[in-house]
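I would like you to sit down with the pair of lines that follows and say whether tokens and residues agree.
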Amino acid sequence: MYSMNDKSALKQLIESDEFSNRLNLDRKTYGLVFDRRTLNAIYEVIKKYDIDYIDFPISSGKESLIFNVKLRNGITRALKIYKMSTLKFSNTMEYIKGDYRFDKEKINRSNLVFVWAQKEFTNLQSLRDSGVHAPKPYGFYKNILLMSYLGSSKGPALQIKDLNGGFDEIYVKLREAIWKMYNKAGIVHADLSEYNILYYRNNPYIIDVGQSVSTKHPMALEFLKRDIKNISTFFIKKGVKCDPIELYSYVKGDTHA
């Protein structure tokens, strides 16, 4: 747990020879260890956003870690840290090139993760501005994104896959959210599934939008079809009457029926 009182200690760790030696770890653990650039970024984020301490991990994935953090004023936030070593350049570039908002960025392997953090920040802003339930982004620095925490003191909000019921109502609300994403925010999620939709305050919240693309992206419609297929498959298994062809037509339609 890193705290404001630990900032000097954290800085000393970053600059120490001992830290440099710790980078010589086996491949199994390397992806879980923060490198020097990430620790430097954590140090700057703690200062910039007045973070009191970084608490427990909320989730851990191949490409990022998310932590519960407390600000000095007592407010809880979520801190998403993108791993420097696991973001695949070739796989990631298909979601950047072709997206007019980012395809003019000078991107290489060393700054790719920084652009990815900026992209998720921008996408979250667009969703919120369009009335889609999503975490509120507060800022980003390097490979770190600060956003609202979805959950309570007991733990983070559940993924919809872990719910016991209420799927008919959730589907109706999610259907509306996908329409707003496409027609108001101008965004296609491009990786939508039951794993990146949280249920919070009686609403589905869309998360993990780093890969999300503009509707003008050349692959936007293919990504939309994939999203709708994934979501429809999940809800059909839960007994919800939904038709992926009808949902696609609804989202793509010029009128909001």
